[in-house]
Each structure stands twice: as structure tokens, then as C-alpha cells.
Design goal:
It is a single chain. The protein is of the alpha/beta class and 435 residues long. It folds into two domains: 312 residues, Alkaline Phosphatase, subunit A (3-Layer(aba) Sandwich), CATH 3.40.720.10; 57 residues. It has eleven helices and nine strands. The strands form two sheets. It has a seven-stranded mixed sheet with strand order 3-6-1-7-8-2-9, with helices on both faces. Strands 4-5 form a two-stranded antiparallel ribbon. A hairpin with a 2-residue loop joins strand 4 and strand 5. Helix 8 runs parallel beside helix 10. The longest helix is centred in the last third of the chain and has 26 residues. It is globular, with a radius of gyration of 22 Å.
């Protein structure tokens, strides 16, 4: 029998003036619902922009006998926790915008329309028991411009909640932290939520009234607007009526809010967002997380890396010249080093029946193979984590010729119980090579 107290563990820690993690004392445990299961299954999607240099990425050997390539060498200690997937093809012929927007939808934006992304589908299925159904984090604001039908800013995200509604990632670490971990039970939080609810109710009422008199084009815009307002409405409802916790972590980590503002250094910024992703999954604040390591058309500066002098997008159009190829490979390897940091961090978190990594399916990759020519075939894709036994790791899987990326997305969706016959109409079946 648990001894119940009136001292919520997190509030007790704050009251002492020190954010230090205590052991998992029963006196601080919340009673779980009858029949509650163990640690939940999570999904973590990580996007890398601008592709890779193929000869430095491609691994040798198949099955368990594969050998890591130059770019993938930082994953050597995690070799048994990953699956390298080859020969998956993306859609789109218009470069970064379509190949970024199709990464989790399998479709790609055209004339402002796309499809619902994998992370949002899974969040709809498993996100009802957590404070946030899903989180989207990033490091780079959207770029503007474009020709109207294919705006560059649409490469800012891989997450779409509807065919016309994209979800931009939060790039400010402090804002993301506050959203995930602010105390929603305080009188101030509830009062603010009620105020927001009254405003949202008025907005919804006005929009519905306007819709009656709107033409077809305006109705479509209003429907997109109402969709975004509904997400705010759902967030408010969760504040006022938080879902009961169906699983309590063995030990809650220390919660240290990041400094306000954006970090100046590229490497520090991404590390902060990685830490927040892991923290959100570890604390069961969410079970679905998506991380944009950078904008899909990223021109970020990597001069903090030895020998790198140009921006990422520029070096990706290497024209087969040794200098740009060397820089391109250095940056790609650095991204894999960040992935290795994330996976090691997850592997070190014990959840009783295994690690956080064991209880997660991680999808990592880019929407194009080689930035030089916007090559959309044989994408650079890695899966990690055993997904509670649903994924056999430690191998290199080679798909059949002309297998669409949507087949992998369908396979992942169905591992989370969605039982879809097709993925947004673009798959030809599940990826049978994954088993």
C-alpha cells in the first residue's frame, strides 16, 4: 500500500530551493490506475537537412555483418541498437521544400497542401495520456520567400496536423521548457487557462458565423484557422482537466530551466534541444517528439568545426569537388555525433524493463540523399531503439528497388497499433525487410 502525502514531489523539490533529483520514494508516488502497464512505447523523429555525400555514408555488408561508414563511425558503440535502412526513395522533384515536407508524410507539399504526418498520426493514437500529445522542437527559424506555391518557409517543419496545417517547431529552449514543465495545477495557471478559454470560445463562435457567408476559398482558409484554434482549445482543456498519469517514471530527473533567449553557438543550441527531447520522453510529458536539427533549406554556419568555411546548403552542392565534399562529410558526421549523444543518453535511463531507448522507436534521416542534384533515391535513414521488441536492431536492411519512403512510415505507424492499410496513399505495403 502506498502512503499518500500532500507533498507533490516536484513541488517539494522546488520548496527546498534546490532542483535535485531524489530517489523514487513511495511517499511521493501517485497511485497509478488499476491495471496500469509498465513504461510506454515512444516515437522520436529526427530530421537532418541537406542530405549527405553518398560515398561517405553508404555502409558495406548487409544484415548483422555490416560495417559502419566514415559518417556513421560515431555510432560504433551503439551498433547493436540501430538499423541502417537503404534504398528507400522519396517523392518530389522540386528540391528541398518537397523533400523536407514529405519526410514524415510520404507526400510532399504542392500548392500549399500536404498530408498528415507520421508523428501526428501516432500522437492521435497514444498521446491522450500525457500532458502534451506531441512536441516539435527545432533550432532554426523559417526562411521566407519562394514562388508562392512552394514557399521556402514550408521547409521549416516536417510535421503536418492536416493537409493544410503545418506545425512549426519551437526553437527557444526556455519557451519549450516552460511549456513542458510549468506547474499547471497552480491557481494562477488555471486562472490564465480560463481566460484563454473565454477568448478561444469567442474566436470559434465568430469564425463559425463567418463561415456561413464565406465562399469556397475563404471557407478553406477558415477551416485551416479553426484547426489551429482547436489545438489551442485542446491545450487549455488539458490544463483545466489534466489526464491521470498512466505511468510514473522510476525516478524523476532534475529540472533546470535553460537561460532565456537563443544560444549563440550552433552546437550548444542543438544539444539543449536534444536534452529537452529526452527529458520530455523520460518524464512522460509526451510520448511523441520530433526534432528538426535545422531548417530543411539550412544555410547554417559550421565554422566551429575544423576545416569548415562554408554554409551547409552551399557545401551540399559540392559539384564533386574535394574541398566541399570534405566539409559536407565533416558536417554530416557531426550530426551523427549528436545522434550518438542522444541515443547514449536514452540508453543510460533505466525504466525497469529496459532503458528509455529500449522503449522508443527512433527515426533519423534526411529527405534527400545527396544535396548535389537533390537526389531523392536511396535516402540516408537510421532507426534506433528496440521499440519494446517490435524492432530487431544491429543490422543493415536493404529495401527492394523503387521502395517508397511511405512504406517505412506505414510500417512504423502500424508498430504503434494504427493498423493502416496504406500511408497517405503513397505506400505499396509495409517494409517487409524489417520483419
Amino acid at each position: 500500500m502506498l502512503i499518500r502525502t500532500n507533498l507533490p514531489r516536484r513541488r517539494f523539490l522546488q520548496g527546498t530551493g534546490a532542483l535535485m533529483a531524489l530517489p523514487a520514494l513511495e511517499m511521493f508516488c501517485e497511485a497509478a490506475p488499476a491495471g496500469a502497464a509498465g513504461p510506454p512505447l515512444r516515437l522520436l523523429c529526427v530530421f537532418q537537412p541537406n542530405g549527405v555525400y553518398p560515398k561517405a555514408w553508404d555502409v558495406e555488408g548487409t544484415g548483422s555483418g555490416f560495417r559502419l561508414s566514415q559518417i556513421l563511425e560515431p555510432l560504433a558503440a551503439l551498433r547493436d541498437d540501430i538499423v541502417v535502412v537503404s534504398k528507400l526513395d522519396n517523392v518530389g522533384v522540386r528540391g528541398h521544400v518537397q523533400m523536407t515536407s514529405s519526410f514524415l508524410t510520404g507526400v510532399g507539399v504542392r500548392d500549399g497542401r500536404n498530408a498528415v504526418s507520421l508523428d501526428m498520426m501516432v500522437a492521435e493514437r497514444i498521446g491522450k495520456d500525457t500532458k502534451l500529445p506531441a512536441i516539435q522542437l527545432g533550432t532554426e527559424p523559417p526562411r521566407g520567400g519562394g514562388d508562392g506555391s512552394q514557399p521556402i518557409a514550408m521547409a521549416n517543419t516536417v510535421t503536418w496536423s492536416s493537409p493544410t496545417t503545418r506545425v512549426s517547431p519551437e526553437i527557444n529552449p526556455r519557451v519549450a521548457f516552460d511549456r513542458m514543465f510549468r506547474d499547471q495545477s497552480s491557481p494562477e495557471a488555471r486562472r490564465f487557462a480560463l481566460q484563454r478559454k473565454s477568448v478561444v470560445d469567442l474566436v470559434m463562435e465568430d469564425a463559425r458565423r463567418l463561415r456561413k457567408y464565406a465562399g469556397a476559398q475563404d471557407r478553406a482558409k477558415l477551416d485551416e484557422y479553426l484547426e489551429s484554434v482547436r489545438s489551442v482549445e485542446a491545450d487549455i482543456e488539458r490544463t483545466l482537466n489534466p489526464p491521470p498519469r498512466s505511468w510514473v517514471p522510476l525516478q524523476e530527473p532534475e529540472l533546470r530551466p535553460p537561460a532565456p533567449g537563443l544560444p549563440r553557438r550552433r552546437d550548444q543550441h542543438l544539444k539543449l534541444m536534444i536534452d529537452l527531447c529526452v527529458l520530455a520522453l523520460q518524464t512522460d510529458t509526451t510520448r511523441v517528439a520530433t526534432l528538426m536539427t535545422a531548417h530543411g533549406f539550412s544555410r547554417q554556419n559550421f565554422t566551429f568545426l575544423p576545416g569548415v568555411t562554408s554554409d551547409h546548403h552551399g557545401m551540399s552542392h559540392h559539384k564533386n569537388q574535394p574541398g566541399p565534399i570534405r566539409e559536407y562529410t565533416t558536417v554530416s558526421r557531426w550530426y551523427i555525433e549528436q545522434l550518438a549523444y542522444m541515443l547514449k543518453k536514452m540508453k543510460g535511463i533505466d525504466e525497469g524493463n529496459g532503458s528509455l531507448l529500449d522503449n522508443t522507436l527512433v527515426l533519423y534521416g534526411s529527405g534527400m540523399k545527396d544535396g548535389n542534384g537533390h537526389v531523392r533515391t536511396d535516402l540516408p535513414i537510421i532507426l534506433a531503439g528496440r521499440a519494446q521488441g517490435r524492432l530487431k536492431t544491429g543490422r543493415h536492411v536493404v529495401a527492394k528497388q523503387n521502395t517508397p519512403l511511405a512504406n517505412l512510415l506505414l510500417t512504423i505507424a502500424n508498430k504503434f497499433g494504427l493498423e493502416l492499410p496504406s500511408f497517405n496513399g503513397r505506400s505499396t505495403g509495409e517494409l517487409s525487410e524489417l520483419g
